[in-house]
Specification:
It is a single chain. About 20% of the residues are buried. By secondary structure, the chain is α+β, with helices and mostly antiparallel strands. The radius of gyration is 40 Å and the shape is elongated. It contains ten helices and twelve strands. About 50% of the residues lie in helices and about 15% in strands. The protein folds into four domains: about 90 residues; about 90 residues, 2-Layer Sandwich (Beta-Lactamase), CATH 3.30.450; about 70 residues, Helix Hairpins (Orthogonal Bundle); about 150 residues, Heat Shock Protein 90 (2-Layer Sandwich), CATH 3.30.565.10. The strands form three sheets. A five-stranded antiparallel sheet has the order 2-1-5-4-3, sandwiched between helices. It has a five-stranded mixed sheet with strand order 7-9-10-12-11. It is found in: Cell membrane. Its EC number is 2.7.13.3. This is Phosphate regulon sensor protein PhoR. InterPro entries: BphY/WalK/GraS-like, HATPase_C_sf, HATPase_dom, His_kinase_dom, HisK_dim/P_dom, HisK_dim/P_sf, PAS, PAS-like_dom_sf.
Length: about 425
Amino acid sequence: MEVWQREFITALLLFVAVAIVGGMTGLFMPLALAVTLGILVRQLFQINRFEKWIRAGGRAKYPKTTGIWEEIYYHVYRIKKNEKKRKKKLGKMVDQFRQSTEALPDAAVVLGANDEIEWANKAARDVFGLQQSDKGQRIPNLIRFPEFIRYLKSGNYNEAVILPSPVNHRITLAVRIVTYGAGLRLLLAQDVTELKKMERMRKDFVANVSHELRTPLTVLKGYLETLQDMDDGESPLLTTSFQQMQGQTERMQHLVDDLLLLTRLETRQKKTECVNIPALLIQICKEAETMNGKASDRIDLTLETNVHITGEEQELRSAFTNLLGNALKYSPEDSVVKIRWYRIADDIVLEVEDHGEGIPTADIPRVTERFYRSEVKRVKKVGGTGLGLAIVKHVLMRHDAKLNIVSELGKGSCFSCHFPAKRVCN
């Protein structure tokens, strides 16, 4: 039988006894009132004792009692005991988490909803110069680099921001923010000093080798032109050899020029001038038609807006020329390449569409890598350095723009350059 049922039966029997005695003595109401008051006083006493025990935290052994109150004390005591076990287990997990994050080689800082520091590991204290007393301080007040503050306010944490360590400018950090929970963010900082050093060495090596190759290539090209002028055409083998040597020298020259251009894009300071894009596109199309007479009927230029953008004209010329050149090169000679300059909601877009061989879906993410060329079966061999789209990608990055590629094998490709509206200058 349940405890509350026993309590109910006991009270019921008590009132039955009162009814019997009251009926025999004629004092039913006074006896019933006395029993009711007794029960009420007892319950008030138990409530008071329970409140005192709970107010003390319920840590001590619960007081001895009987009936339903004993069950109440027992259940509350068991809940408190289980809660204590869970809290102890959770505390161990938190300690293990803190120990593991303290051992991480990368800096980790937990930020609150208002950019305040909730917690930081040892690596964060070392590379950012944070102290234990900085808990609750806003991170922009302690790390005052403009790039970091803009990154923090932007809310766009897809890419990491590169900045020097506030305590040691020889250390380069790649800082990334990960959002989680309700308004919480985790700031992660990785030491990329050696990686950036190797990247600089690679750039310097490519730039130096490319620069040194220009002189011997120029000499070779000059002698080949002289030998071709002296060729009387009596030896087909000699004539063919000269032509092949001339073609390979020009290919090498284009490769060196593209490598030097990439190096300049990676190292040169950005310029801000207002570029007349419609006029630039008209000029690029005319140059393509001049270089290849067959291209005069193949280029369809549509200017739906007269918007100018801020940027570097020569860099934009290189990017747009590469896109147009690729479209003409990788599509049939009787097909039309459409160039469109237009404006949508938040972007200004240059679109180059061809009806050529297309790009396999698996290759699209990699076509902007250096020297990467899609393995597509072609009727004729198409020459190139494999650097054209890499140049396009770097130019667009320097202009806060993005390159979108939509392609289907056998049907053609569409390359669209999306410039942000903040670049409009006219």
